[in-house]
Write a structure and sequence with these properties.
single chain, 212 residues, mainly alpha, two-stranded antiparallel ribbon, 4 strands, 5% strand, globular
Length: 212
Amino acid sequence: MQKHKKADWLIMALIAIFYIFGALQLANPETRTLYTGMTPWVLLFSVLFLGLYDKTPKRSGLLLFSLIVAVLSFGVEVWGVATGDVFGNYSYGSELGVKIAETPLLIGLNWVLLLYLSAAISSFLPRNILSWIILPSILMVGYDMVMEQVAPRMDMWSWGGDVIPIQNYLVWGVLALLFHTLRYVMNITVRNRMALFLFTIQVLFFLIILIA
């Protein structure tokens, strides 16, 4: 696992303050509207931030993998929103920005980000099915379980009857397994010493909103 430099700790401290402050403001109904529309910018910032620290050996392979994931995941989300047959009955709000077929364009990028983070976290482990496919997929499902609890409050998406179906988590897990299997076949080792930090601070962000 890559070690952090002194400058990294300062950057992480500043980002942690940003996330925690934002979570506290979003948890407060009186200040929540002031931060409407920030999610797409935070998502893009996260991608840029990780890009600066990316040390993946096969950059061309990573870009191809990311493109495949973005296109396929967006297609699945469009299908899911239109029919309710994939994740369950849900609809997207306005927080994630511009939509096509009632599906935010950035949702594919969100899938790429989570796959990247979970892959990078487990990249220091030996290359096998458990560490390259199963473990990162479990991390993604765990992340989704936390995120789903606060997504409606942030107007990201909402569920029919305000009930999150078990089907959602099962399909999330299956898709995560399939995408990480593709990465395994393509033999892409994701390296980024900031991945664990960003994954952790984002989970903490959602937890603060949930319990505050």
